[in-house]
Amino acid sequence: MRRIRIAIAYDGTDFHGWQVQPGLPTIQGELERVLAEIAGRAVAVHGSGRTDAGVHALAQVAAFDLENRIPVDNLRRAMNRLLPRSIRVLSTEEAARDFHPRFDARAKTYEYRIWREEICPPFDRLYVLHHPYPLDEGAMTDAARVFEGEHDFTAFAATDESDEEGRSKVRTVYSSSLRRDGPRLIFAVRGSGFLKHMVRNMVGVLREVGKGNLTRDDVCRRLETGCGIPPGPSAPARGLFLMGVEYQGASATVGVVTSRK
Questions:
Q1: Which residues form the catalytic set?
Q2: pLDDT of 73-113, one tens digit each?
Q3: Strand partners, 176
Q4: Residue of 252, 203, 179, 238 lying closest to 57 (CA atoms)
Q5: Pick the CATH number of 105-247 from 3.40.50.150, 3.40.50.980, 3.40.50.261, 3.30.70.660
Q6: Which CATH number fits domain 2-95: 3.40.50.970, 3.40.605.10, 3.30.70.580, 3.40.50.300?
Q7: Residue 65 near residue 2 (C-beta atoms within 8 A)
Q8: Are 236 and 94 in contact (CB under 8 A)?
Q9: Cα dihedral across residues 140, 146, 147, 148: positive or negative
């Protein structure tokens, strides 16, 4: 039995997120479908995390066990031949038997993209939040830095089935920034891990700062344990991209999945 690790890019527009859901198209479901065809048996695929419906990825990481001795390059070609064109396997490689894409991950980077001009080109409309209205981008940039460090992100997390288990919602954000790239305003955040809807809620709150409805201090209050402030507002999924996942023993490069030594 071999453990295979893959890097995947996908357009999440037509999918109901990563996780398999009966009767609905999902990224995990499509991967398991084509692997079953290649292997002649059911193959369970494990990802580095679950992206929401409509969220995109430039470099998701997944792993699975395979008895078939097909060379990894041929496996990549076979998977891409069978997958819909909105999902591409970027790389395939042999991994250590104990490798797990979720539990071994050291950091993830996400970007959220906001289109700031009056007219959003039709070719960008599925990959940005279109907001041509006034925003104080300086105030948003300043508030974005508040997320850096170790905080309780309960006020930025949607309800999840794991809530009943009482898991901690403390996470460490290594960097959080806002930058302009032509007509796009891009929020980039790198952290140890992310909760359900966490990045989308961070963007939604920053947009309220830009509108003048919230202040930097309001953002700080949301990071206080027991603040009691409900999550939201949440930005639409279409502007969110998983840029990369990092593992021990390799340098971090946004948009490129790094190696595990």
A1: 52
A2: 999 999 999 999 999 999 999 999 999 999 999 999 999 99
A3: 189
A4: 238
A5: 3.30.70.660
A6: 3.30.70.580
A7: yes
A8: no
A9: positive
Contacts for 126 with CB less than 8 Å, ≥ 6 apart: 11, 13, 238
Q: Judging by DSSP bridges, how do beta strands 87-95 and 46-47 pair with one another?
A: unpaired
Q: Is it the case that residue 129 has pLDDT exceeding 50?
A: yes
Contacts of 162 (CB under 8 A, 6+ apart): none
pTM of the model: 0.92
Instruction: Tell me the pairing of strands 240-247 and 56-66.
Output: parallel
For the stretch 118-128, pLDDT in tens is 999 999 999 99
Q: Which residue is it, tokens 């996908």?
A: 10
d(CA 47, CA 62): 4
Q: Name residue 50's amino acid.
A: R
CA-to-CA dists, residue 73 to 3, 77, 80, 89, 250, angstroms: 15, 6, 11, 10, 22
